[in-house]
Amino acid sequence: MQANNIQPANRIGTVEEYYFSIKLKELDKLRKEGKPIINMGIGNPDLPPAPEVLAELNKQSSAENNHGYQSYVGIPELREAMTSWYKTYYQVDINPANEVLPLMGSKEGIMHITLAFVNPGDGVLVPNPGYPTYASVSKIAEANLIHYDLDENNNWLPNLDELEKQDLSKVKLMWINYPNMPTGANADNKFFEQIIAFGKKHNIVIVNDNPYSFILNDSQKSILNIEGAKDIAIELNSLSKSHNMAGWRVGMAVSNPEFIQYILRVKSNMDSGMFKPLQLATVKALELDKDWYKTVNAEYLQRRMLVHEIMDLLECDYDLNQTGMFVWARIPEQYKNSGELSDEILYGCDVFITPGFIFGDKGKQYIRISLCTNQTVLQEAKQRIKTLKN
Ligand SMILES: Cc1ncc(COP(=O)(O)O)c(C=O)c1O
Predict the structure, then answer these.
(1) pLDDT tens-place string over residues 309-361
(2) Family, per the entry (predicted)?
(3) Model pTM?
(4) Cα-based distances in Å from 338 to 42, 115, 359
(5) How far is CA 370 from the centre of its chain?
(6) Which residues have any ligand 1 atom within 6 Å of their CB?
(7) Which atom of ligand 1 is found nearest the CA of 43?
């Protein structure tokens, strides 16, 4: 029963609760009913952060003077560490004083950037399929949401010639995300050059959301590596996946000083800095050497082989060269859409697989399995699916 006559703001009607927020509640309910649910849906790393990172967090949390509010722009040590990380792995030069802004995860950056650049009615280009937050945040900001299609036949890259045919005069922002989630596709420098030229030609801010570049990917790429990219592009990055620190909420925005200032103007009115021990421990994480990434990836590689076997049992087609933390696969034609297959597996053998439709209608013939499940559990899931299918 409604306790009063208060209605939420209209913008609440434009978005729904995040799919995984609803789905996790359903999976919890099924577990409480005694079902042995295996969740292969969400990209939430189960592996721990590096021991030295945890030790630093413990040490710094025990210090008495580390518990106050922190600077809005992150401590200098953190900005320096982010800068060196970009130099080492992406060969990008950043001024730590004003070209990098630590964030509480890259997800919050999507909101800050949108609020910093987009007026109600401005156009925002959002990939289909794509990470759902780009679209929902655009709706909350009352932007004019313009989906652009990603197609398997174009290696899941935007078709810029098609986009050029549209009226782009009111478009302010374009979201891209390479290495791509959910498709696992990668972009090369040629594409990054083209998209930067496209952004400059049409005065569209290009944002590359880049949290997956260290997962099952041979060479890390940043859009900011392209000459002149910083003039028009912003890159979001994150330690959630690369360092198994998703719950810590640490990410960063990198761009030119002016753009960073706009983002800061929004962000500094929303939070009051990041817990200092967490920032200092993040510095340790960013200083880890290449062996860290190798060890993490060795495990993901084993898991991916098992997930391929599961996809084979489901008669799904996939590209062996995908990057990132998921396997994205086309479902057999007998299914009208991925929801049908996902429900069959969930209710038939208590295994949850993400249906691709949640990433947009171009994903409806695909499913996505996360590599954030250990090998024993993946074996169990495989066994259950095999039994169901026989
Ligand atoms: C494409 C993409 N962008 C951003 C995020 C958010 O990551 P973070 O934990 O850094 O907020 C995710 C998380 O799943 C993602 O898949």
Answers:
(1) 999 999 999 999 999 999 999 999 999 999 999 999 999 999 999 999 999 99
(2) Belongs to the class-I pyridoxal-phosphate-dependent aminotransferase family.
(3) 0.96
(4) 16, 33, 11
(5) 13
(6) 43, 105-107, 131, 177, 181, 209, 211, 238, 240, 246, 251
(7) 14
